[in-house]
Amino acid sequence: MGEIASGKSTVARMMAEHGAVVANADEIGHRLLDDPAVKADIVDVFGEDVVDSRGHISRQALARQVFSDPSDRENLAKLEGILHPRILDKVREYAKTTRSGGHPILVIDAPLLLEAGWVTLCHRVIYVSSPDSFRRRWASERGWSEEELLRREAAQLPLELKRLRADLVVRNSGSLEDLRRQTVRLMALLVG
Asked: Which residues of 62-71 are buried (b: 16+ CB within 10 A; e: fewer)?
């Protein structure tokens, strides 16, 4: 877990290079949007405005409804109520595969690890931190404005609370080589 656009998924990918299995909650959630039952549930709650011209859920339109007012968490709670149980089922499938395949580590790459209550599935919690200037740049590369980044952060638990819940902290200074070195040390510590 960690700050938005801090490099959490990059750290997870680097851990995968060293034998970890990664369950990326965002990717799972994006794939679930193509599931007819999920699409029907989302349309029931958010209306046809979230469906694009090809009949798919528009993540941008859905995000506008969910994150438009940071003080109104009702829409976010509704979306999480639809997606989180299904994502959790998929994460549990990853856990079974990890155990049965003899892999040493399952990484749950989830921005809302603490908020969703999935932290209880973890033996260790890793927090990825990065300077605000880097995070703003990386969020911009995703097509997000600074306001969008702030709206999304406001919808999550305070960063300090997340940091306090972490067992280990990775500091992403923007150097991939430094991040890779930290990840190698992290894997050695975790696999021990």
From this structure: bbebbbeeee
| 67 band by pLDDT with thresholds 50, 70 and 90 | confident
- Residues 1/8, Cβ–Cβ less than 8 Å: yes
Domains of the chain, by residue range, sit at: 8-191
Element spanning 163, H or E? helix 159-165
Instruction: Give this prediction's pTM.
Output: 0.86
H/E element holding 21? strand 21-24
| Average pLDDT score, the chain | 92
Write out the CATH class of domain 8-191. alpha beta
Q: What band does 104 get if pLDDT is binned at 50, 70 and 90?
A: confident
d(CA 87, CA 178): 31
Kindly tell me the sign of the dihedral angle through the C-alpha atoms of 87, 91, 92, 97: positive
Contact 20, 187 (CB under 8 A): yes
Q: What gap in Å lies between CA 73 and CA 58, rounded to an integer?
A: 20
